[in-house]
Specification:
Blueprint (H helix, E strand, L loop, with lengths): L1 E6 L2 E6 L6 H8 L18 E4 L2 E4 L12 E3 L12 H8 L9 H12 L7 H7 L11 H9 L8
Parallel strand pairs: 1-5
Antiparallel strand pairs: 1-2, 3-4, 3-5
């Protein structure tokens, strides 16, 4: 079957099977390698993308189910070669170590912080509760999220 997906404000047509997961379509058909495959069960968060403003696990989302929706991946955050403020904050605070969880972590935070003016450490912890990081201990990730000007998160 053919699907038309709006990914990072670009329209993509892909031939898929009804059982194809969004993570596989993004990585294998659209060549967007930023979305990582971790557990393939929705338990680690490495595959997190934003669909219509909400963080979703792309490994447990059928690609056909998001046709007509707005999908944002880690590749879609940077504009004109400039990193998004959240991506910059991760670099500035050393919140990137091995980097495997980073795209999913950033996407979960992007969805959670969008439009929020006041954010607490507890809110950030809740926002990333579905994302596992084995390297950082989460402190630098939380500090990076807290450092971002929430009013200016969306470009």
């Amino acid at each position: 079957m053919k699907v038309i997906l709006n990914v990072n404000d670009e329209i993509h047509e892909a031939d898929i099977k009804p059982s194809d997961r969004l993570s596989d379509v993004l990585r294998d058909k659209l060549k967007m390698k930023g979305t990582k495959r971790g557990c393939d069960t929705g338990g680690c968060g490495a595959c997190t993308v934003v669909v219509d403003g909400k963080a979703v696990y792309s490994c447990s989302t059928f690609a056909a189910s998001v046709e007509g929706k707005k999908i944002i991946t880690i590749e879609g955050l940077s504009k004109n070669g400039e990193l998004h403020t959240l991506q910059k904050a991760f670099l500035e605070h050393g919140a990137v170590q091995c980097g495997f969880c980073t795209p999913g972590m950033i996407m979960a935070l992007y969805a959670a912080l969008e439009g929020k003016k006041e954010v607490t450490a507890d809110y950030v912890k809740e926002a990333i509760a579905g994302n596992i990081c084995r390297c950082t201990g989460y402190v630098k990730i939380i500090n990076a999220a807290l450092s971002v000007d929430k009013g200016g998160l969306k470009r």
